[in-house]
Amino acid sequence: MAEVIWTEPAFQELSAIAEYIALDNPAAASRLVEEVFDKIDRLEVFPQSGRIPPELPNSVYREVVVPPCRIFYREDEKRVFVLYVRREERQLRAYMLGSS
Keywords for this entry (predicted)? Predict the structure, then answer.
């Protein structure tokens, strides 16, 4: 079983997205956060279950999509690092994932 580790930037971005949604619909924001954590928790058992991002076909990064979010991560033998959360409509640039 892999340990899931959230980076501070990923957690902050998810919080910002949820806060924005909560301005109009607090219940939807809560559901989004709950669904994101449920999907990410699944990575403990199935760390390679996320897809390889289309923009990064030969990278070590994977993603889980929970509309309107794309959650980017990488995994090693015992850990999954959640690196970045992005709204789906925003373009991904490889430098955003850094070298974490």
Answer: Toxin-antitoxin system
Query: Any idea where the domains of the chain sit in the sequence?
Result: 3-89
What is the DSSP secondary structure assignment for residue 51, as one 8-state letter?
Answer: B
> What span, in angstroms and rounded, lies between the C-alpha atoms of 6 and 53?
19
pLDDT digits (tens, 9 = 90+) for 1-51: 999 999 999 999 999 999 999 999 999 999 999 999 999 999 999 999 999
Q: Tell me the fold of 3-89.
A: YaeB-like fold (3.30.2310)
Query: Which of 95, 81, 96 shows the shortest CA–CA distance to 44?
Result: 81
For 61, phi then psi, to 5°, come to -85, 150
